[in-house]
Amino acid sequence: HIGVCAHVYTGTCVSVCTPVIPVLEGWMVASVSHGIGAGADNYVYRTHDGGVTWQEAAKLEEAGRYPCAVGFFDDLHAIVGIELYDGAPVFVTRDGGESWERAEFPAPVGADGWTASDVRCSGGAVTLTMAGGEPRREVRLISWDWGETWEVEES
Q1: In this structure, how many other beta carbons lie within 10 angstroms of the beta carbon of residue 90?
Q2: Residue 87's pLDDT is what?
Q3: Residue 30 in contact with residue 46, Cβ under 8 Å?
């Protein structure tokens, strides 16, 4: 993904991640802080004209904190992982952002205390690295159906 991530302070903290897909199509996640320790609202925006205009595609209602792993793969598929706090949800869309669902993971990652740290797509597989557990470690999950189902990747 080619793009930028920035944290901007203009009276409130705003986090912006904008990997751009082809030249005209793009996605952006913008987070607006509620103040120190108070969480954030996360909005997904889309552009179809190379960033000249942006339209709000969704508000990730259950997010509550900041994005920490974001993957925009094409015009239809995206994954947004939220930092560790209250379950650290990972959201998936397979319809260009029209709808978002919270990803379900197999054990041990299905329990609280895990957070997404990296997301990539290669050769038809989405790989999501999750960090957590006791003792703290990383587990890689793989999905062959754009995040609908996940399995622990054997190393």
Answers
A1: 27
A2: 63
A3: no
The average pLDDT across 23-45 equals: 75
Give the per-residue pLDDT at 64: 66
126: nearest Cα among 106, 153, 86: 153
Residue 135 burial class via C-beta count within 10 angstroms: exposed 0-12, middle 13-18, buried 19 and up: exposed
Torsion of CA 144, 145, 151, 153, to 10 degrees: 20
Q: Decide: helix, strand or coil at residue 5.
A: strand
Burial of 129 (0-12, 13-18, 19+ CB in 10 A): middle
Burial status of residue 128 (CB atoms within 10 A of its CB: 0-12, 13-18, 19 or more): buried
Mean pLDDT of the chain: 77
Q: CA-to-CA distance for 5 and 141, rounded, in angstroms?
A: 24
Q: In what order do the strands lie in the sheet with 125-132?
A: 114-122, 125-132, 137-143, 151-152
Residues 92-103 as b/e (b if ≥16 CB within 10 A, e otherwise) read: bbbeebeebeeb
